Structure prediction request, 233 residues.
Amino acid sequence: MVLLSSVCGGRLSSRAADVAMTHLVTAVVVVSTLVQMASGSEPPVRAAISWVLIGIGCGALYFRRRRPVTVAVITLLACGIYYPVSVTDGPALAAFALALYTLAAEGHFTVSVALAAATLLAVGFGEVVINSGHRQIDDVSVAMLAGWLISLVAIGRAQRTRLAYLHEAEQRALAAEREQEARAAERHRGTAADRPRTPRHPGPQHFADQCPVERDAAPAEQEAGDSGRARRR
Prediction:
């Protein structure tokens, strides 16, 4: 449901993309292992152990964002047990590859390099010491494995750097926008403070109201003057 709703929304969310990638890797490992087991013969006990290890390695991928170091270690140990036990060597290493990439992408660069180096040392030890009489991996395959692991770590590191740069650019853009809004608000306040106040002048109605008063006052003053002159006589 999460995957379908995210696709309908136009693009996959981060969590849905992780789930989709986990399903894809699990499907590749399971289908390839089934094809190889069908074409060969493997004892039931070894086959059961192999499927348990595949389930552990692929199931741990669901938590690769929450616990990247733990998931990388679990998938590496599962692969380290799976390949000596299983007769048909399936692509179980794909689970560790995805976990290693996630480990580097989440910022654990030193740990990812250490696990990649431990993987190469374990492969070399198994080929030189344990299987010295009949090697299963030649030097070219070991070199290709080393390049593959280094590429996974480098791509994860580049993805981490890219996301950090995008986050920093987004924060700078938000800070510049907030600063622009603050300056605009400050200019608005300054304009309102400097605006002169318009004086209030008496309007035409005021003068119209005063005219009858003045007209009424003129006869009264005249009568008062006539009365004063009469008394002086």
In short: The chain is about 80% helix and 0% strand. The helical segments are 2-8, 14-39, 44-60, 68-85, 93-105, 109-130, 139-194, 204-232.
